[in-house]
Amino acid sequence: MKDDLMLEAFEARARRRDQRRGFLRAAGSMAVVAAGASLLSGCGDDEATAVPTPTPTPTPTPTPTVTDGDVLNFALNLEYLEAQFYYFAAFGSGLPSSLLGGAGTQGAVTGGRQVAFVDPLIARYAREIAADERAHVEFLRGAIGTTAVAQPAIDIGSSATGAFSSAAQAAGLISAGQSFDPYASDENFLLGAYIFEDVGVTAYKGASPLISNKTFLEAAAGILAAEAYHAALVRTVLYGKGVETPSLRTSADKISDARDSLDGSADKDQGISPKDGASNIVPTDNDGIAYSRTTGEVLNIVYLTKLAAQKGGFFPNGLNGSLNTSTAQ
């Protein structure tokens, strides 16, 4: 009996709940109809029956797709530059011709000669880095395959109008009309190398999100690590020699400032000697992470311009491949 009473109570509660829901649905429908009738009553017959003209949706401008091949070819252009500089400095000759052909216009190397190193350690460092950079060229050409770009025209000379002298003038190391010779001494060689190495690290880090193939991404990470070792070595030796010759550290810091002035308003560069006198071997942000540069920002530095350009500086005829334009700053 008790169970029957409980069952009847539950059934009655369910019926009342269903009745409330039905009433609310009916009330809601009536409110919508009433609101629509009220709205139409305020309009004329034409306005009530007129169909509003839809606003056309703007057609988005398609964003060019950057392929893994584009990114690797961009890196290959930079590796040609570094490899030729180090090979001439270490061995007195450039890369073999078998490593220079490919898609696009093959260019020649202007300048370059062997450094008469005084410090045998720096000579060994130069030879090791030269071998690494040649290996990077060989690897990238093999990874890209038949679409690998040819070496573009490269300026690594020491004339007063050449890229190294223009970079040194921009940094305030020399005056207009003077020349900077990166092959004249151990110290000049280190400063010349310093122009490239930090840029290479930020270039690979900035390009890594553009690579979709995991195999290529792993390889790019490996090259990034090698370039970071090279950059840290150059910065360490410059700082060490700068302890005895403060002007050398000052020159390196001016190069950092010049690079930073070319790639936009963001601070993506640091010298080797902070104001507190401590060393700064690794340039990082507040989280201890190395900086990234876009391909356009990298080209601002190697083209030696703040403008949107397709050639200049160390690449007098520009890069081969689709990623070849610097960013207007």
From TrEMBL:
* Residue span of region Disordered: 45-66, 252-283
Start-end of Pro residues biased regions? 53-63
State where composition is biased (Basic and acidic residues): 252-270
Q: Which InterPro entries match?
A: Ferritin-like_SF, Pigment-catalase-like, TAT_signal
Q: What is this protein called?
A: Ferritin-like domain-containing protein
**Phylogenetic classification of the source organism:** Bacteria, Pseudomonadati, Pseudomonadota, Alphaproteobacteria, Sphingomonadales
